Amino acid sequence: MSLSSTFTALSDLNRQKIIDLLKKREMPVSEIASHLTITMATLSHHLDILKRANLISGRREGQQIFYSLNLSVFEEITEKILKFLKP
User: Fold this and answer.
1) Sheet of 27-28: strands edge to edge?
2) HSE-CB for 21 with a 13 A CA cutoff
3) 61 has which bridge partners?
4) Which pTM value belongs to this model?
5) Which domains does the chain have, with CATH numbers?
6) Which of 3, 27, 47, 56 has its C-alpha lying 20 to 30 A from 11's C-alpha?
7) pLDDT digits (tens, 9 = 90+) for 59-75
């Protein structure tokens, strides 16, 4: 995982909103969609970008996919940024 791919994934406002929603708790796609004004195809695209950056993960439960944050990745990103900012 590179900071570049992470920042690219987080550069979009809709993806930032998705991350903000998932900070609260795991959510199914349908609930994430209810908080955004984008099509399901666009939401799928954004979720795919976040998954490829390893920022979120999904698990299937019946017909639904539930998404959650990969907290360990956020911790790793924070460490890298702090190292970068150290004099």
Assistant:
1) 27-28, 64-69, 56-61
2) 21
3) 64
4) 0.86
5) 3-85 (1.10.10.10)
6) 27
7) 999 999 999 999 888 78
